[in-house]
Design brief:
This protein is an alpha/beta fold. The protein has one domain: Creatininase (Rossmann fold). 38% of the residues lie in helices and 7% in strands. It has eight helices and four strands; from the N terminus they run H-E-H-E-H-E-H-E-H-H-H-H. It has a four-stranded parallel beta sheet, with helices on both faces. The chain is globular. Bound molecules: zinc ion. Zinc ion binds next to helix 2.
Amino acid sequence: MKREVIYSVRGPRLLPEMTSAEIGEELKHTDIIIFPVASTEVHGSHLPLAADTIQGTEAVRRIVAKFASEGIRVVGGLPIPLGVSLREMDFPGTISLMPDTMMAVIRDVCNSVIKHGFRRIVLVMSHDGNLGTLYSAAEEISKQPGVRVLLINWLPFLRSKYTEVLKSKSGGHAGEGETARVLAAIPELVHLDRAQVGPEEGGSGPQLETDMSIHFGGGTFDPARGLRDLTPIGSFGDPRGATAETGDKCYGIIEDWACAVIRRHFAL
Ligand SMILES: [Zn+2]
């Protein structure tokens, strides 16, 4: 029986794509492992539920490749495809962990790699709803002797560059930015022909200074309303102008910033 090829994957390989012996060999050269931590949740009518996982995985592959080109060896970890998506649960297909389940997953994943010899763990946040849990997990796991957990959130820096990169002002959930990044990673899973225009994230009312969500670098968090109340189509903004080229530019910004942050914190 001939089966359809859904999409192809470009390297470098991450932990689940390597053998145990290959990880053992890497451990002779590095104690750094970088995990994309994402979600499975609605991303409008045009992106797959794995949109955050695809972006986090692609970002980590590019971070590992950039370090390799500089002669710095790090291991790309297991993409964690589930997160806290309680806000998105009104939409079919969304699968959410409760925050305490998420905490337990992150704790067990980190303790597994710590047992094998990794000591510096980077958690790359590619789904904003995981911020609170990842913050607590990083703090708790870092208390083990000799272990460091660095949590990084690329969103505030990337959003500060969006006016230079995007055609629209749609940097929000499933908007032009996210659509472009999924296009640059796995174009076969993007349905631009089904893209719809949603409201702008944050509404159109008068804005107070730094009155935006904490995960975007602001100072507020107001989780009471479900995503369907904010946007009936499960996305914000106008994704129709998204291109893979824009997505590549976004990954370039993420890569440069993330590598600089990791280099500085771990004195590489
Ligand atoms: Zn997303």
